[in-house]
């Protein structure tokens, strides 16, 4: 999966999802030989001889079904350039469901959004989880805690960290971008509610840009499915500071006010008040039964670069990670964190998910305990410099 992350967050609201019938596409391959033929014996005058052509057989081979099946979201769901939006489902145990939001950068200016220039985001929804084989997508890995779960994978192609509702924003010079990531994301929410509404446990997670909307969608699911156990685990998105001026400016471009949910905790909230720690606080206080965890690298280079790109004053990612955790826990929300050393970016879709160990605690064990409902503590590097080779 992509590792780009997003710049800031923005507001969040419950808006209607894209409409249109879902169309699941399956893929199989087959090859067939010619139909069986048998020639009659050939005879001549004495001395008589007979030759026979042995019959051929028909063989048909069918490729095994792909683990993930594509669902076309519909005419009202689209990517930044107006191209088709689709998402993916991997059928597994329907009582346990993972809703995963993909990453892929962000944009908030003509320079960063221009698809013909040097865009800092994914333009089209072209990530196919059938090609993924690491992290939670390693379906045959014996230590994968969600290997047999039903999974819904939401690609990302709108440059708005899955929080936008603004179709056709004009950046000038002919650069028109659809920031409709939240509306696309609602299709995943609806899929969980409509198809897997009796699930016992639902894990909402995502990497990089896909980590930022996790608190919002975890809250929406807790609201819609109060009998389900909801878990929220953002990956590689906890190091962005909440800056009111930047929140307002970027939120206005993306239309994040259209994603603000109708909760008691969001009554009267403005874009300026919607930052990373605020998203946890609004969802966590509204639905205190949600269980949270968070993963980051202490000096994540991608988070640092996007903060700078968005005009946020230079600060240490590790310092912001600590600040955001403190703001969340000061509000009364338990947020265990796992902070690894170095400048790497993301963990949930990487082979390192099974290899990483910090302060004697393997990440996959920490993750498995969290999912199983076992108590987990903060795991924070003491020597947080770049990882050695």
How is the topology of this model organized?
Blueprint: E1 23-25, E2 30-32, E3 60-62, E4 69-72, E5 86-90, E6 93-101, H1 110-113, E7 149-154, E8 166-170, E9 176-179, H2 181-195, E10 201-207, H3 214-224, E11 229-235, H4 244-254, H5 276-286, E12 291-292, E13 294-297, H6 301-309, H7 317-330, E14 337-340, E15 357-358, E16 361-362, H8 363-372, E17 379-380
Parallel strand pairs: 6-7, 6-10, 10-11, 11-12, 13-14, 14-17
Antiparallel strand pairs: 1-4, 2-3, 4-5, 5-7, 8-9, 15-16
Helix pairs in contact: 2-3, 3-5, 5-7
Q: Mind explaining what this structure looks like?
A:
- The chain has 389 residues and is of the alpha/beta class.
- The protein has one domain: 3-Layer(aba) Sandwich (Rossmann fold), CATH 3.40.50.1820.
- It has 8 helices and 17 strands.
- The protein has an 8-stranded mixed beta sheet with strand order 1-4-5-7-6-10-11-12, covered by helices on one side. It has a 3-stranded parallel beta sheet with strand order 13-14-17, with helices on one face. It has a two-stranded antiparallel ribbon with strand order 2-3.
- A hairpin with a 2-residue loop joins strand 15 and strand 16.
- The two termini are 23 Å apart.
- The N terminus is likely disordered.
